[in-house]
Design a protein that fits this description.
The chain is built from four helices and two strands. The chain has a two-stranded antiparallel ribbon with strand order 1-2. It has one domain (4-74): 434 Repressor (Amino-terminal Domain) (Orthogonal Bundle). The termini are far apart. The chain is mostly helical.
Length: 76
């Protein structure tokens, strides 16, 4: 499952504001703001929509492992 920090890092990496990501994922901007600030969770399908938008823009989500916590990177 993606973390709030991963979503924020991904959004910033591709140069999207909260409103732009919300529009692309068809969710309310407050939904994204609330999740990124860890003041609320997301339904699985909402998180899936956000993830798909960011992945289409070149984000690769990295799971936590023994080398460190979860993160993001840009595709080549």
């Amino acid at each position: 499952m993606l973390t709030p920090v991963q979503i924020k890092m991904a959004r910033v990496a591709v140069g999207l504001g909260v409103r732009e990501l919300a529009e692309a994922a068809e969710v309310a901007p407050s939904t994204i703001s609330r999740f990124e600030s860890e003041k609320g969770g997301l339904q699985a399908r909402t998180l899936d929509r956000i993830q798909k938008v960011l992945e289409r823009l070149g984000i690769v989500f990295i799971a936590a492992d023994s080398g460190g916590g979860p993160g993001v990177r840009l595709k080549k």
